[in-house]
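hey m, so remember when u said the tokens were messed up on ur end? i reran from scratch. heres the input so u can diff it against urs
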Amino acid sequence: MATFDRLSALDCVFLDLETEKAPMTVGWTMRFRGQAPTVQALRESVASRLDAVPRLRRRLSQPAFGLGDAHWVDDPDFSIEAHVDAVHLVPGSGDGRLEEIAGRLLSRPLDRERPLWRLQLVTGLGPEQFAIVGQAHHALVDGVAAVEIATVLFDGAVPAQAPVPWQPAPEPSTAEMLTASALSRIGAGGDVATTVARSLAAGADTVREALSILATLVTPMPRTALERSATSRRRMAVVSAEIAPIRESVGRHGATLNDALLAASSVAVGAALARRGEEPDHVRVLVPADVREDGESGADHGNRISILAVELPLGRPDLERTLKTVRARTRTLKSADHAGALDAAIRSAELLPPPVRSAAVKATAAAAHFTLVISNVPGPPAQIGVLGRELEAIWPAVPLVDGHALSIGAVSYGGRLHVGCYGDATLVPDIDQVAADLGAALAELAELPEPEETPWRRRARERRAAHRAA
């Protein structure tokens, strides 16, 4: 078994994008039912499962002067106490709601000298209730991987094992890492060739599509008040809604749950900009798309995402029309396989020397024009918990890229869509209103009227009925 592994080009993108005001930390807030466990019991439970995710005991190692690729290497000083801790809220102390404490905990930076993750047990929320606020660097996980790892660390797919003594492997030498980098690049080259060949076989001009997407991202758009950074402090607000009525309602209009989230977000973002004296017709949003293949584990491969750049209509009081516009735009992007084309371009970056790749990432990020990221990932398919306590809800926190003040993330779990609105604490003091507007829009989408039948659809239905009668 390998005792160290190389970060992919996409993993490194999130190291390159990190700034003092914009830590690239994926967050999640999990609320549980039952009496809170002790922090020691939680530490022992998590520690017993770490063998299933070796990277959680590994820290970042970056060769000096960019001479080689970054690797995850065993942390000789790994201690579960440094990664699993507890916070107790004293009633009447003014600590406030779970969202408020989550925002403060998620604002704490991760130490790059240690494995890049942390869990905080939050007690004192009330009788028979507690929470766990988690963080992991985006270089370590994307949204899908974070969910998969949660099912491993908690009472999910992998049962707890009796503690096994763990011994860190010696840190590899520079020569060993350079050799591993060279071998990984050879493998990456084969993967890139396979990806491009598959796209070409499907009739897509991969290079042309990828360049088209990048051109779209850098096409200038009017800047909004949400395209700024002021601080690394974060605020969070959450909302949850039943999935079934939303899916059934928008499905009658040919739309998906993800289309519904985008349409509801358009209402919330439009209202937020209006409160700031701005009323643009549309904004550009980035929507991460999972590009994992069947059998590819999120826990083993931290980041396997591409993006769709969606023009989100604003200022439309008719939510049904907004949904129709969103549906048409996402269908166009999916049919053109924008996510697949960009994935091939990202994977080809594996062949670039780290300094060149880093410079390209920073230049592209500086030139990109978008207002926010809106992410939607499937949650655990089955009920999970921790130490026998049932998980009730999980709200994600999508990291903010420097120059952006708001993100929206959603996770489907337990028949409900759990949405986390995450913002710069200085620039988005109205984060609670953003979440409230989004929740109200989701409720409206769950009760859309039946779509009117167009004449051509009616004639087609009548012909089918006549054919069956004959």
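this time it looks ok to me. The CA atoms of residues 85 and 120 lie 5 Å apart. if urs says something different then somethings off w ur setup not the seq
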